[in-house]
């Protein structure tokens, strides 16, 4: 960890806790700052705040009082989930108080370089693949951010021999100042989080911040099949490294004649990759690019790609029962993610889908249902998804109460060589606290079948 004196005796407000806020507050306290923590949850229900109080940190809980901003704070470190239209953030800007997120602190203290990954889809899979490839190649990676441990905790332990592989959201990137990754990856861009950002352009601009501080000594690895992503690259000062599963490129990572290729060098045959799905080929190519630029051998890359079956809840292979294969794609909380999952299989599919009703219809799924022989629905959107299934001509449609009941229903509907796929196309919050809980229930139900 670098010796940082910039926060010594500075008065700093940490707004919002969760893991990142706790880590930021503790780190700033170690760096000699006068830290105040403000969290909306009452102190009696807030063990994180109670722990910080025991460290000698000032804690204010139960509300976000605007007049707190008049106490002379020189910096605010905010929880990424707090939007910029929050009155406390707007009040900070009115008073000229700078606002950052915890990842900026991690960068400032880290001795290790960063490989940073963002995008609408594929961030977690790409981050995990890079970590696994570098680990297999003996490169001493550490994993951080939205996947793994909070960035500022990892950065305190990192040395110059490490590389921090970090998944970043648009929320986190809006709070950076000096953050400069050695490699930045932009997987893709689709409409998302518009309730937070307001407009598509604001969302794209937030994602583009991942490369704003990069120089010609750095790399910007980007999807070469999306104009919006290419445009971000055109504004970057880094060396551009494109990837494409569909087109041969002059340089970068691409697929040609059934092979993965990087800068003209064949790495391995696509058919030997364990991870299913055309969309995952994008993730794989970006990971290959980052790993090759990090000096990872082809042998290490091949070792990972011939064994890696997916991140939990993201098109995760669960097992086989009586000739049926089960996949957990509970992270598919939108239509696009389910379309990608359905496109990953050539076998007949029994689809488990449904969840929180956000007011949208599911007509966009109809063309993707061509490989679906049966569907089991649940949750608030069950009727809407059934309507799309009937429009697609699916004959076997059954509604059940929940995911646990959906698994045996799908099994009864299926036969040997079918894929039984949980890919809900909806958020989980109508029935389950998180998509992880929903996925774990699916996994448990599959194991009960065994």
Automatic annotation (TrEMBL):
UniProt cross-references to SUPFAM superfamilies, sorted A to Z: MurCD N-terminal domain (SSF51984), MurD-like peptide ligases, catalytic domain (SSF53623), MurD-like peptide ligases, peptide-binding domain (SSF53244)
Domain Mur ligase central: 117-290
Enzyme class (EC, first level): ligase
Keywords: ATP-binding, Cell cycle, Cell division, Cell shape, Cell wall biogenesis/degradation, Cytoplasm, Ligase, Nucleotide-binding, Peptidoglycan synthesis, Signal
Main location: cytoplasm
Coiled-coil regions listed in the entry: none
Pfam families recorded: Mur_ligase_C, Mur_ligase_M, MurD-like_N
Catalytic reactions of this protein: UDP-N-acetyl-alpha-D-muramoyl-L-alanine + D-glutamate + ATP = UDP-N-acetyl-alpha-D-muramoyl-L-alanyl-D-glutamate + ADP + phosphate + H(+)
GO biological process, one term: cell division
Subcellular localization(s) per the UniProt record: Cytoplasm
InterPro entries according to UniProt: Mur-like_cat_sf, Mur_ligase_C, Mur_ligase_C_dom_sf, Mur_ligase_cen, MurD
A molecular function (GO) term: UDP-N-acetylmuramoylalanine-D-glutamate ligase activity
Ligand binding (ATP): 119-125
EC number: 6.3.2.9
Mur ligase C-terminal domain mapped to chain residues: 313-426
Pathway assignment: Cell wall biogenesis; peptidoglycan biosynthesis
Cellular compartments per GO CC: cytoplasm
Annotated function: Cell wall formation. Catalyzes the addition of glutamate to the nucleotide precursor UDP-N-acetylmuramoyl-L-alanine (UMA).
Homology family: Belongs to the MurCDEF family.
Annotated NCBIfam families: murD
Protein name per UniProt: UDP-N-acetylmuramoylalanine--D-glutamate ligase
Organism in which the protein naturally occurs: Bacillus mesophilum
Origin organism lineage: Bacteria, Bacillati, Bacillota, Bacilli, Bacillales
This protein's encoding gene: murD
